[in-house]
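Summary for the steering committee. One of the milestones for this cycle was to obtain a three-dimensional model of the protein with coproporphyrinogen III bound, which we needed before selecting residues for the alanine scan. The sequence and ligand used are listed below.
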Amino acid sequence: MTNSAPVSARRDLADAPLLAAARGETPRHTPVWFMRQAGRSLPEYRKVREGVPMLQSCLTPDLVCEITAQPVRRHGVDAAILFSDIVLPLHAAGIGLDIVAGTGPVVAEPVRTAADVAALPQLAPEQVGAVGDAIGLLLAELGRTPLIGFAGAPFTLASYLVEGGPSRNHERTKALMHSEPRTWHALLEKLADTTLTFLQVQLAAGVDALQLFDSWAGALSLRDYREFVLPHSRRIFESLTEWDVPKIHFGVGTGELLGAMRSAGADVVGVDWRIPLDTAAQRLRDAEPGRDAPVVQGNLDPAVLFAGWDAVEREVRRILAEGEAAGGHIFNLGHGVLPSTDPTVLTRVVELVHSITRR
Ligand code: CP3
């Protein structure tokens, strides 16, 4: 796929707070969006998803458009994130897997040997054509709200494929990495290609920013991350440098990996609640002293949304102060919205962030 032709289709949203903040400029207010803002916390989501399996809904353009737009309408967030899933491109490529409610992705035949890796199918762009179609609908629907595209990073995808489903300890994944490094790197190379294809389809269709989710990378030591993961994630970012859109890199429990994750080629680093944003930014500066000031995204603990408004407000104010000290800041949770979250609290968080930071 070429990177040049469809760029003119991209909307000019230069003054959108999300994009200004991601470029290190001063936005008119601190932008705020929430990972998993589209989903089960919203009754309007549960209604339209009734009877439609998750992966099927991700390949139904008008449903993707509706679900993606729901939290923008309801909360007034500064960005939409495409309704999809990190395992969608694997499914679209023909790998047998399902998303089981309450569990997550479950893989029919886990990938554990060199022969399994060699047999893995690669994603062709037309297999996710429906995602490009959905993005086309969304650009018309969203007006001046930026649309964030995303994909799973190779390590997090590999963990699902090797373990066969969600894993607490990632033991089979780490065993493969350490016992058969050549097979491991071959697997991550294939997954990086699939992720790249999925992101290029989204970029060609016109997404305004993208986020690479390496949700479970925090399970790794910095040494193992650098050796077994970083080269593959870096290849993804480097292959996308021609696309002039902000690129966000996020993982959970990655306090020790933040510098390495930025060095992969990210403009913005997502941070969970375990580390204050100003400390995170200092680590990013220390890791790459020659680079521009870092921009961080985060990092309200999603569980705090259950603690009553006084606690939520206190935490939002603390995070905004730490974000101010960090330099550039995009407000978000430290991980996804939990399904039983009261959505009215999310709307109040958006209003609070905007009212405190309006310039
Ligand atoms: O609003 C958004 O953030 C966009 C949609 C989105 C989904 N998945 C929709 C979804 C995004 C960005 C993802 C990414 C994703 N998927 C990640 C990375 C983000 C993270 O949470 O760290 C991961 C690890 C997955 C894998 C996955 N898919 C899990 C763990 C689950 C949850 C299983 C469950 O039921 O608790 C899914 C399913 C999923 N993806 C749902 C949604 C809305 C729930 C499915 C449903 O509503 O039936």
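Key point for the committee: The pocket of coproporphyrinogen III is lined by residues 35-40, 49, 54, 81, 83, 85-86, 99, 101-105, 150, 213, 215, 336 (CB under 6 Å).
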